[in-house]
């Protein structure tokens, strides 16, 4: 990959129970593209992934939400899984961090996969948007005013969404493409 993204910085917001592949695939793709990536979470230490039907690998938290400043990032990635976004959507600090990416004119990419769009619903930014997700939350997205579609990847303005781990190569590619624009 090119070194032109070496000046870019991306936040991955996650907590215990993130879908392992949905954090590690974009993380690795971004690192291969020379992007600086920070894992942001609710607490210091490390967080543990969920791998199919059991606990998976842990990853070190770089910054807590209290330490992180959204203006320091060029993009935000929201991995899915069931536990991760369900926990984060009850955190005022997590929702405020997400909302900050939509509060300025920079149009910084916000990428959510699987159940990650639950966080976009909670942030109140899905109305009128074309989004995809894991099929089980399509009704939640529609009820919040989104135009849900069954697609590998959808891009609507600064929002990038995907359905599941099978879509991760295309999802990661679109994040890198958005950072390159």
TrEMBL record:
Q: Which organism's genome codes for this protein?
A: Paraglaciecola mesophila KMM 241
What SUPFAM superfamilies does this protein's entry cite?
Class I glutamine amidotransferase-like
Q: In what residue span(s) does the DJ-1/PfpI domain sit? A: 8-177
Keywords linked to the UniProt accession: Glycosidase, Hydrolase, Protease
Q: What family does this belong to?
A: Belongs to the peptidase C56 family.
Q: Which GO BP terms, alphabetically?
A: proteolysis
User: Could you give a GO molecular-function term held by this entry?
Assistant: hydrolase activity, acting on glycosyl bonds
Enumerate the transmembrane spans. Answer: none
Q: What is this protein called?
A: Protease I
Q: Which PROSITE patterns match?
A: PEPTIDASE_C56_PFPI
Signal peptide positions on this chain: none
Read off the Gene3D superfamilies from this record. 3.40.50.880
| EC number of this enzyme | 3.2.-.-
Q: Which InterPro entries does UniProt cross-reference here?
A: C56_PfpI-like (IPR006286), Class_I_gatase-like (IPR029062), DJ-1/PfpI (IPR002818)
Superkingdom field = Bacteria
């Amino acid at each position: 990959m090119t070194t032109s993204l070496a000046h870019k910085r991306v936040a991955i917001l996650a907590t215990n129970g993130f879908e392992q592949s949905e954090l590690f695939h974009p993380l690795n793709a971004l690192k291969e593209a020379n992007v600086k990536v920070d894992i942001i979470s609710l607490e210091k230490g490390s967080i543990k992934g969920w791998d199919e039907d059991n606990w998976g690998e842990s990853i070190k938290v770089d910054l807590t939400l209290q330490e992180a400043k959204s203006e320091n990032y060029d993009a935000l990635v929201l991995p899915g899984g069931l536990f991760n976004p369900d926990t984060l959507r009850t955190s005022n600090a997590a929702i405020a961090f997400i909302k900050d990416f939509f509060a300025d004119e920079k149009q910084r990419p916000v990428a959510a996969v699987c159940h990650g769009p639950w966080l976009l619903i909670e942030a109140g930014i899905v109305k009128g948007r074309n989004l995809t997700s894991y099929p089980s939350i399509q009704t939640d997205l529609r009820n919040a005013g989104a135009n849900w579609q069954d697609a590998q990847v959808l891009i609507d303005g600064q929002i990038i969404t995907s359905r599941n781990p099978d879509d991760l190569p295309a999802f990661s590619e679109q994040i890198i493409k958005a950072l390159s624009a």
